[in-house]
Amino acid sequence: MSSSSDFGFRANPLRQLGWGAALGRIRLEQLCFWRHRQRAFFSFLMPAVLLVLLGELNRHRVVGGLRVIDWQVPGLLTFGLAAAIYNNLAVTVTEQREAGILKRLRATPLPARAFVVGQLGSSLIVGMCLTAVFVVAARTLFGIGLPLGHVLAFVVTVLAGAACLAALGLAVTTVIRSAESAVPVANATYIPLALVSGIFFPGQGGPSWLVSATRAMPIRALAEALQACFVAGPGSAWRPERLLVLVGWTVFGGFCAARFFRWAPTGSTT
After folding, report:
1. Can you give the residue ranges of every domain in the chain?
2. In this structure, which of 162, 197, 222, 264 has its CB flanked by the most CB atoms within 10 Å?
């Protein structure tokens, strides 16, 4: 049995997806996620805690005529989605692969696509829960409402960002060599990028080359698209150029994941 194949898509072109199996995998992954209390806390609740702490510190602080907290909510939401979707997916799939779970699953009747849909679906549910908490908390605690006319742009942006982060989360598993290195590698690929992307404070600058580089990255693209949904004027909530960046990274991540994904543990010859 091959240890890597395009998620089984080309190897089994006539295999049915099996929505019942996929829904079962989503349910199983959800149960595993919420039972792992530490992971749930740091990938889901920690961004919410940061929202409360930074919001209280900057509730009345104004920069350039804009409350800092108005800028921070979309940035913290972006950071939270990256933790809940990208980081969690990368760590979970790597740990399952290195423990031999994925290899054993490939020997069962479970369609490979059902497993992938289960992982993506579970990550999307966590991301949507996080988004709902952020929107409600921002409105309740800091009076930051999402304009009714911006709801569609917001939903499309969140879904585009979630898809992008999920694709990249699966892609990064192809370069992680062990379960022990999953967390540090995943953290090292998005936390520094979030810090230098200027998504937490308005007017945060840096060298021109760094600004240009981060604008091509998915973290900043998602944050700026979400910021437009919260603080832009009527009719200005859509940021198609930022959404195109997310689509581009989604295609790239999906291609890398499909091409190089491994079902067997690192070093396995079967």
Report:
1. 19-199+206-260
2. 222
Residue entry with tokens 């760590």: 91
Angle between helices 19-35 and 88-98 (to 10 degrees): 100
**Quick one: tokens of 34?**
């919420």
In this structure, of 74-78, 99-103, 196-200, the range with the lowest mean pLDDT score is 196-200
Reported as a single tens digit per residue, the pLDDT across 200-256 is: 776 555 677 887 888 899 999 999 999 889 877 666 788 999 999 999 999 999 999
pTM: 0.85
